[in-house]
Amino acid sequence: MVVWLGGMFLLVMVMLLTARKAMQSGAPEAFGILSDAAKKFLPIAWAAMILLGVSGAYFATDHWGIRPNISFTDYGRFMQILRVKTFLFLFVVSLSLLHDFWLGPKIIERMEQARQSGEVLPQSLARKLARMTAGINLLSAVTILVLAVYLFRP
Asked: How many domains does the chain have?
């Protein structure tokens, strides 16, 4: 979880802002650095999400004895938090699929074309959506971490 969140913070809060400032000052290689960092982080992020999903399902079923029929009929505090946490995890996975395999590659391709042809880098809706999905994903992942603490704290 730490590597996943740390990588997300690095990409969203540091690399993106640095690349944006460099691109505004006319350094087109800044986008390539951001793109390379994101491509290297992608397998780590997906491995972390898979590991978190599998370990969460394991702990829910084996450690706490939660079965699917209990998930929707128990209205205790623990189950409410666990349901919200599960929903947020599925939301993060869905948004990551959208961002990592559709929006991101589409934007990278368009930015490379613009850079190679010497055009001004476009400020498109897709770029704004990609930034927004990355930010929402980061916020959701932090919320999942906070909810994990609330599962065990009164």
From this structure: 1
